[in-house]
Task: inverse folding
């Protein structure tokens, strides 16, 4: 009889273990709608009029406090969201839209924290970018948790949110055809904040003047009001262009509201509230209308407009008597020449016929006869045009202007060196 009782107790124990496992399996099960899951790859399967959402099977924990999503394809609109949500989040809403959820949205770079109105947070994301999301380990015990986001391995920012009892689950939202991502639910976050600060500080010294512009490493961010033409944000390099450093580039990271971004050359004492090109002693290519401005507020048609992701460049073709080293300038035509990073120098160009300058520019040239150079501009590595200009006393300084909220550019003051 004891053997029979023992046998039944063993069977009950096995049944109980099976029931517990089944409950746990139901509790920790990935949930998704309008999303195709193929291993670690998620792709949108809707018709772009409804949201698709994926929720991971387990919440973040102290032992697994971070995950990453790599954008494989932005699809039609790039409406990809990465964040944290409660376990039973509604799958027809983007992460961050409903209470107790938070997410970084790739299409506008905004942070959504429990409602459908986002706040400016980071930069937009494109194919190849990695968006990470995690919880600072020290905040797991508190009811108010510190959630942070990263882009390409660098922290963008953090926010404190309330945590539901079941925890916060990694989530990915999509909303247009062709969107596809790869998710790593066990990614490791090992950023060294001290190293990041050192990297940012190391670029401050490259700038001689900054007005309504914030420097973050190689990134310049407009911080002005953007309400009138007097609200220009100006960044001017510490050193002028020379025969050894005669070219620089700007990548439009975020076009902001109007893409009122300009790059060019200006005298050292250029007015801080004037776009490059608008006042005497400057020449600049403007992204919003593709015009060139040369010492006047009236621009001339020059090249194509520029948008987010475009790289604008500016340089000087110095006359031979400016050359300080033994290298010869190649006089082959550059009508089809492309500027590639890490080349030693840009070669010379056969120029078109001279064009009339603005009246103020002509006066300046007469005043400084014999100090003319050819300024050229590029777009995505290809020369689009040039303008003859007079070098102000002290030289021409790389100068960047911005004038609408949200504008951000990445600057390389020495793209042809090395």
Result:
């Amino acid at each position: 009889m004891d053997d029979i009782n023992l046998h039944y107790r063993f069977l009950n124990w096995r049944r109980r273990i099976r029931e517990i496992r089944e409950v746990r399996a139901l509790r920790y099960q990935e949930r998704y709608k309008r999303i195709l899951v193929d291993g670690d790859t998620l792709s949108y399967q809707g018709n772009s009029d409804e949201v698709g959402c994926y929720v991971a099977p387990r919440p973040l924990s102290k032992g697994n406090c971070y995950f990453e999503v790599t954008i494989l394809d932005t699809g039609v609109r790039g409406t990809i969201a990465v964040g944290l949500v409660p376990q039973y989040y509604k799958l027809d809403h983007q992460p961050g839209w409903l209470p107790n959820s938070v997410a970084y949205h790739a299409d506008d770079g905004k942070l959504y924290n429990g409602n459908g109105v986002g706040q400016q947070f980071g930069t937009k994301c494109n194919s190849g970018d990695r968006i990470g999301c995690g919880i600072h380990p020290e905040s797991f015990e508190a009811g108010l948790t510190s959630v942070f986001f990263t882009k390409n391995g660098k922290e963008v920012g953090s926010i404190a949110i309330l945590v539901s009892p079941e925890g916060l689950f990694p989530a990915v939202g999509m909303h247009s055809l062709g969107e596809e991502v790869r998710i790593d639910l066990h990614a490791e976050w090992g950023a060294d904040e001290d190293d990041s600060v050192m990297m940012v500080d190391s670029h401050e010294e490259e700038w001689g003047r900054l007005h309504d512009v914030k420097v973050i490493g190689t990134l310049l961010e407009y911080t002005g009001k953007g309400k009138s033409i007097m609200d220009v944000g100006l960044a001017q390099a510490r050193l002028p262009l020379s025969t050894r450093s005669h070219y620089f580039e700007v990548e439009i990271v975020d076009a902001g509201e109007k893409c009122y971004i300009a790059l060019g050359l200006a005298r050292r004492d250029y007015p801080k509230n004037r776009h490059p090109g608008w006042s005497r002693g400057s020449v600049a290519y403007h992204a919003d209308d593709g015009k060139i401005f040369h010492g006047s507020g009236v621009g001339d048609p020059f090249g194509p407009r520029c948008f987010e992701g475009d790289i604008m460049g500016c340089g000087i073709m110095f006359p031979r008597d400016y050359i300080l080293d033994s290298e010869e300038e190649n006089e082959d035509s550059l009508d089809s020449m492309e500027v590639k990073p890490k080349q030693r120098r840009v070669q010379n160009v056969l120029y078109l016929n001279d064009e009339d300058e603005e009246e103020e520019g002509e006066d300046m040239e007469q005043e400084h006869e014999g100090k003319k150079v050819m300024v050229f501009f590029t777009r995505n590595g290809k020369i689009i045009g040039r303008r003859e200009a007079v070098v102000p006393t002290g030289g021409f300084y790389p100068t960047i202007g911005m004038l609408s909220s949200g504008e951000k550019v990445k600057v390389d003051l020495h793209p042809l060196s090395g």
User: Anything to note?
Assistant: Residues 28 and 106 are 27 Å apart (CA to CA). The chain has two domains: 29-189, 197-412.
